[in-house]
Design a protein that fits this description.
There is one protein chain. It is globular, with a radius of gyration of 20 Å. It has 2 domains: about 210 residues, NAD(P)-binding Rossmann-like Domain (Rossmann fold), CATH 3.40.50.720; about 90 residues, UDP-galactose 4-epimerase, domain 1. The mean pLDDT is about 95. It contains 12 helices and 12 strands. About 45% of the residues lie in helices and about 15% in strands. With about 350 residues, the chain is of the alpha/beta class. Bound molecules: nicotinamide-adenine-dinucleotide and thymidine-5'-diphosphate. The site of nicotinamide-adenine-dinucleotide has 31 residues, from helix 1, helix 4, strand 5 and strand 7. Thymidine-5'-diphosphate binds next to helix 6 and strand 8. It catalyses: dTDP-alpha-D-glucose = dTDP-4-dehydro-6-deoxy-alpha-D-glucose + H2O.
Length: about 350
């Protein structure tokens, strides 16, 4: 039986990856290691908690001795590393927290994998999950490919870029069998309402202002989270060691256009007159260092592994909105307590 460690599996993307692996691979023993920060939530994975091939471990990847102990108890065959501080706005307020988790935490995992596998890499794999934000910002033309030079602008993307470099350095220096994926913006169920789509859904439900940064003409490529989980599964099993795969939705939207679409869909779902939610759009002070545009060329993973997104943006958004409307208790729980302080500080 294979022992697989997934880090950050109580977060947004991690919960979808853990669920997929637990349900799809009953012959794997899946360990979900998560510190349960503000972004981690056991409610996100409640449906799999009693599965026989699943174990939850609460712990911090920055804690070196804890990580060493965990690895000496379990000889993991594979690691899917998703644990991270993930929100750009929080990285602007507290960059050091991002260095600790994203850089030092990743280093601890790389070290322990190198030391435990001791050059015997047969059947072993370290899959580092990263972002397209490491490539910096595009102008109005062009796409990020796997060969685009790194040029991160936010403390978040700089910390992820640093962790990517360390992963590759361990591959070059110690032969660590790594694989890296860089993905565009995800959306879907269990997304913490600090990011654009879930924050705006929550605010529309509660008739609160929709704070659009700058002129709203920033562009992102959006991918439904379950399609990302499928891509990660495919790359983990079929990708080549020491390779990078970009993952994207072929789905670019200017923020203002996306928000208008979201408002119209929400008006329909909530039985409100069309145009009601759009009145909530409020232009606010821009994010410092705001990247103009991200867009991914995902042709490598498409050609080599046959992956492409399975749902259209309209389908994915509808699934997402339905999930939030059917899970308003979840939304209420995650937006009580410290969320209120965060919101006040960020948007007042
Ligand atoms: P998230 O913030 O929703 O979840 C992060 C998870 O990591 C949480 O469960 C949290 O408790 C856990 N965590 C944080 N610090 C930890 C620590 N020190 N030790 C152990 N666990 C810790 O993030 P997400 O959006 O699910 O992103 C997951 C990964 O995917 C990240 O590495 C992120 O950089 C990457 N990514 C995200 C996106 C996106 O659009 N959200 C896109 C591309 C790549
Ligand atoms: P976000 O969801 O934070 O993802 P990222 O910054 O990692 O791409 O933001 C997506 C886009 O939405 C980005 O251009 C910033 C913008 N945005 C707003 O205009 N208002 C907001 O309140 C948030 C959170 C984001």
């Amino acid at each position: 039986m294979k022992k697989i460690l997934i880090t950050g599996g109580a977060g947004f993307i991690g919960s979808h990856v853990v669920r997929r692996f637990v349900n799809r691979y009953p012959n794997y023993q899946i360990f979900n290691l998560d510190a349960l920060t503000y972004a981690g939530n056991l409610e996100n994975i409640k449906d799999i908690q009693d599965k026989p091939n699943y174990t939850f471990v609460k712990g911090d990847i920055v804690d070196e001795s804890f990580i060493n102990d965990l690895f000496s108890k379990h000889n993991f065959d594979g690691i899917l590393h998703l644990a991270a501080e993930s929100h750009v706005d929080r990285s602007i307020e507290d960059p050091l927290a991002f260095v600790k988790t994203n850089v030092v935490g990743t280093m601890n995992l790389l070290n322990v994998a190198k030391n435990q596998w001791k050059g015997n890499f047969e059947g072993k794999r370290f899959h580092h999950i990263s972002t397209d934000e490491v490539y910096g910002s595009l102008g109005t033309e062009g796409l990020f490919t796997e060969d685009t030079p790194y040029d991160p602008n936010s403390p978040y993307s700089a910390s992820k870029a640093s962790s990517d470099h360390f992963v590759r350095a361990y591959g070059e220096t110690y032969d660590l069998p790594y694989i890296l994926t860089n993905c565009s913006n995800n959306y879907g169920p269990y997304h913490f309402p600090e990011k654009l789509i879930p924050l705006f859904i929550n605010n529309i439900i509660n008739n609160n202002p929709l704070p659009l940064y700058g002129d709203g003409n920033y562009t992102r490529d959006w991918l439904f989270v379950e399609d990302h989980a499928v891509a990660i599964d495919l790359v983990f099993h079929k990708g080549k060691n020491h390779e990078t795969y970009n993952i994207g939705g072929f789905n670019e939207w200017k923020n203002i256009e996306l928000v208008k679409l979201l408002c119209n869909l929400m008006d329909q779902k909530l039985g409100r007159i069309e145009g009601t939610s759009q009145e909530l759009i409020t232009y606010v002070k821009d994010r410092p260092g705001h990247d103009l545009r991200y867009a991914i060329d995902a042709s490598k993973i498409n050609k080599e592994l046959g992956w492409k997104p399975s749902v259209t943006f309209e389908e994915g958004l509808e699934k997402t909105i339905n999930w939030y409307l059917n899970n308003q208790e979840w939304l209420k729980n995650v937006t009580s307590g410290s969320y209120k302080d965060y919101y006040q500080k960020q948007y007042s």
